[in-house]
Amino acid sequence: MTATDRQRVLLADDHPVYRDGLSLMLTSTGAVEVVGTAADGIDAVEMARRLRPQVIVMDLQMPKLGGIEATRRITAAHPDIAVLALTMHEDDESILAAMLAGARGYLVKGADQAQILRAITAVSNGELIFGPALAARVAAYFAQLATAAPADRNPFPELTAREREVLDLIAAGLANRQIAERLVLSPKTVRNNVSNIFGKLQVADRTQAILRAREAGLGN
Q1: Distance separating alpha carbons of residues 170 and 133, to the nearest angstrom
Q2: pLDDT by residue (tens digit) across 172-185?
Q3: Does position 99 have pLDDT exceeding 50, yes or no?
Q4: CB of 163 within 8 A of CB of 203?
Q5: Can you give the three-state secondary structure of 106-136, one letter per residue?
Q6: Is the pLDDT of residue 5 over 90?
Q7: Is the overall model pTM greater than 0.70, yes or no?
Q8: Band (88; pLDDT cuts 50, 70, 90)
Q9: Does 208 lie in the same domain as 120?
Q10: pLDDT tens-place string over residues 6-20
Q11: Which of 21, 54, 166, 218 has the fewest C-beta atoms under 10 angstroms from its C-beta?
C-alpha cells in the first residue's frame, strides 16, 4: 500500500492513554495515516479545517465542546469529511444524536483493530456503519420510526426527555425561574438544559427556540 492509499485520519479523544494507544495501533497497520490528535471538541473543529482528514474518529464526551456538537459543526462546514463516533456510550439517545449531527458510523470502545479499520474504510466510502451490538438496535429503531403515525413522532429526537420537557415550557412562555419551580429543579440545572437545547437545535436565542418548538406543536 502506497502513502497515497492510506486513509488520512484525525483522532479526537480527551483521554491521552486511549488516544495515543489508538494512534499507535492504527499507524502500525500501515493502512492509516494519523494526521493529528485532538483533546477536545474545539481542537477537533479547528484541526478538521486545517488538516482536512478523510475521517475523524470522534469521542462524544469531551471538554470545551462535546463530540456531537463538534460533529455537527465539522460535517456542516466540510461534508466531505466522514465522522466515525467511537465512544463508551451505547444508549439510543447518544446513537441517534450522533447520527443526526452527521456521523456516518458509531462504534463502542472495545471494538477491535479489524472493526475500527473496517469502519474507517466504510465511512470514508460514504457508507453508514455500526458495531455488531448496535446494528440490530438501530435497524429496529428506524423500522419503528417508519411505521409510527406522524403525530406520534418526536420532533426533536436529539433532545433528552428532560430537555424536551424544558423546551415545552420555554415554548409556553415560562422564564427559567418559573421552569425551575414547575419541575422542582435548581436554576443552574435549568440553565444547563436551556444551553444544551440551544446547542442541539442550533438556535441563537430563546426566541428562535420558541419558534422551532411552536412549529413542532410544543407549548400548547
Answers
A1: 37
A2: 889 999 999 999 98
A3: yes
A4: no
A5: EEECCCCHHHHHHHHHHHHCCCCEECHHHHH
A6: no
A7: no
A8: confident
A9: no
A10: 899 999 999 999 999
A11: 21
Instruction: Note whether residue 50 is domain-resident.
Output: yes
The per-residue b/e assignment along 107-130, b for 16 or more CB within 10 angstroms, e otherwise, is: bbbebeeeebbebbbbbbeeeebb
**Dist. CA 74–CA 212, nearest whole Å:** 23
Q: Tell me which residue of 167, 88, 116 sits closest to 7, measured CA to CA.
A: 116
Mean pLDDT of 160-183: 91
The tally of domains found in the chain comes to: 2
d(CA 196, CA 191): 9
What is the rounded CA–CA span in Å between residue 26 and residue 17?
A: 14
Question: What are 44's three cell numbers?
Answer: 477537533
Mean pLDDT, residues 159-173: 91
Query: What's the confidence (pLDDT) of residue 27?
Result: 93
Residue 20 CA neighbour count, 13 Å, CB half: 3
Residue 87, domain extent = 3-141
39 and 131 fall within a common domain: yes
Q: Residues near 102 by Cβ (< 8 Å), separated by ≥ 6?
A: 71, 72, 74, 75, 76, 83
Give domain status of residue 64, yes or no.
yes
CATH of the domain at 203: 1.10.10.10
Residue 148 lies in a domain: no
Confidence of residue 141 (pLDDT cuts 50, 70, 90): low
Nearest CA-CA partner of 57 in 69, 67, 43: 67
Q: Is the domain of 13 the same as that of 111?
A: yes
